[in-house]
Amino acid sequence: MKYGREKHHEMFLGVTNIVKPKHPYVDSPYPIDKSQLHTTWKKSTSYSWAHCGPRKPKYKGFLITYAIDLKYFNSQSIERVLCIINHELTHITEGSHTKGSAHNPAFWNQVVENAKIIIDKKEQVEEIIGEFSTEMFIHEVWNEPNNSMTDGRIEKPDARRSKMKVELEGYGQ
Fold first, then answer.
1. What is the number of domains present in the chain?
2. pLDDT, tens digit, for every residue of 113-151?
3. 91, 114 in Cβ contact below 8 A?
4. Among 42, 63, 152, 155, which is most buried by a count of CB atoms within 10 Å?
5. Structural domain includes residue 173
6. pLDDT for the residue numbered 43
7. Spatial contact of 86 and 144, defined as CB atoms under 8 Å apart
8. With 0-12 CB in 10 A as exposed, 13-18 as middle and 19+ as buried, what is 5?
9. Which domain holds residue 64?
């Protein structure tokens, strides 16, 4: 899958407008259009493939900041890209602006809930990103937590993956 940055941004916005994660600074922001998305660049040498966070509207009218490593995104399956989109749009609701760490248990619980919305609204999502395998998407989601994406003071990656697998395995199939 090889798309330009603009197409990846459209995919993120489209899925975000379907999932409608709770925005901490605006009561009813959806639909969000591209003029409200502050996009930045991620270097391929970065430790993460994307980042996202909510913005207060006074920040030049932007409601969300989003950046991707285009090289990484273009080397992945659509299910992996959708998994990362799901992860990043969850940071609108849960992240460094909420209580605890950016990847605390509340964050991962919300990742699961947002993944369920994506699966429940699969036809709408596929209109934006193209066809994807629900089973492969679920596998990507529950397999995502690792040592750098879980709060080791609270839980270990294996425990988080197990919880997510139980929640998602067979969902929507």
1. 1
2. 999 999 999 999 999 999 999 999 999 999 999 888 888
3. no
4. 63
5. no
6. 63
7. no
8. middle
9. 5-168
Question: Average per-residue pLDDT in the chain?
Answer: 91
Rounded CA-CA distance 131/126 in Å is 5
Count of Cβ atoms closer than 10 Å to residue 47 Cβ: 6
DSSP letters for 134-152:
HHHHHHHHHT---TTSS-T
Pairing of strands 50-54, 37-41: unpaired
Integer distance in angstroms from the first to the last C-alpha of the chain? Answer: 25
Collapsing DSSP to helix, strand or coil, 66 comes out as strand
H-type alpha helices, the chain: 5-19, 70-73, 78-93, 105-120, 122-129, 134-142, 157-168
C-alpha span between 146 and 132 (Å, rounded):
24
pLDDT at 92: 95
Q: How many other CB atoms sit within 10 Å of the CB of residue 103?
A: 25
Q: Which two tokens stand for residue 114?
A: 């947002």
Q: Is the dihedral of CA 46, 109, 97, 153 positive or negative?
A: negative
